[in-house]
Amino acid sequence: MRSSRKLILAVLICLGCLSCGSDKEKGHPSEPVTLTSEDDSDVMSFKRGGPGNMVNTIYGKLLVKRPELKRLEDDMIANDQMQTDSLKQFDIYRTKSNQYYASALENIKDIKDSVLRKEFEKFVTQNKTNYEHKISTQTTLLGNIEKAEQTLKDNRAVLKLIITLPIIEQYQQTQLPANKKLEILLQEKQKLISRTKKLASTGD
Fold first, then answer.
1. Would you list the domain boundaries of the chain?
2. In angstroms, rounded to a whole number, what is the distance separating the alpha carbons of residues 87 and 99?
3. Which of 46, 49, 81, 158 has the lowest tally of Cβ within 10 angstroms?
4. Tell me, what's the pLDDT at 12?
């Protein structure tokens, strides 16, 4: 439990440093990002988050203002496409092979001779085992890619929270409405309550 907390703290510190990094890139200061009451919550939606998500709304504003963040997001999109392209041929290869073994086992059921049927079940099963051994390196790589993809998603989610929390905190600090209208509303309701009670008591 302690090690997990330390890991989370380390990630927050690292990403916090990123979010609080220099506002200058190549000598050009970036404009501050602010949020107002007029900001629509579905200004921008992303493939990893739908409309109406305020984290994504603020993140979208940051993408416009921070070139290094925009480049990171673009590189993630490019990496997704690279993954699709890289896995396509192997996915086809693996799918066809698995479909073959599934069909072979179904066809073997049509063999009426029980001894012959068992022999071919054993033969096909062994052939499938050989095939799985042949692609063991690729299978390991795919497992590692899947783990790396999940780690990337986790880090991206944390990054978005780390760099958007200060913006919403600033909004909460600067856009808090005054109490006057609420106080007037309460006073008017209390007057209506008094009038209602008065009419109820007189029956008029």
1. 29-176
2. 18
3. 81
4. 57
Identify the three-state secondary structure at position 18: helix
- Determine the Cα–Cα distance for residues 83 and 149; give it in Å rounded to an integer: 10
User: From CA 204, how far away is CA 197, in angstroms rounded?
Assistant: 11
DSSP 89-139: HHHHHHHHHHHHHHHHHHHHTT---HHHHHHHHHHHHHHHHHHHHHTHHHH
Q: Which of 204, 180, 175, 162 is nearest to 17 (CA)?
A: 162
Q: What is the pLDDT of residues 114-152, one digit of tens each?
A: 999 999 999 999 999 999 999 999 999 999 999 999 999
Q: What pLDDT was estimated at residue 170?
A: 92
Q: State the average pLDDT over residues 47-56.
A: 68
Residue 47 has what pLDDT? 41
Query: How many whole angstroms separate alpha carbon 83 and alpha carbon 62?
Result: 26
Determine the average pLDDT of the residues in 72-99. Answer: 96
Task: Specify the pLDDT at position 13.
Answer: 61
What separation in angstroms does the CA of 170 have from each of 80, 97, 196? 33, 57, 43
Query: How long a stretch of residues is the chain?
Result: 204
User: Tokens in use for 75?
Assistant: 């590189």
- CA–CA gap between residue 121 and residue 123 (Å, rounded): 5
Give the three-class secondary structure for 5.
helix
54: tokens are: 């305020």
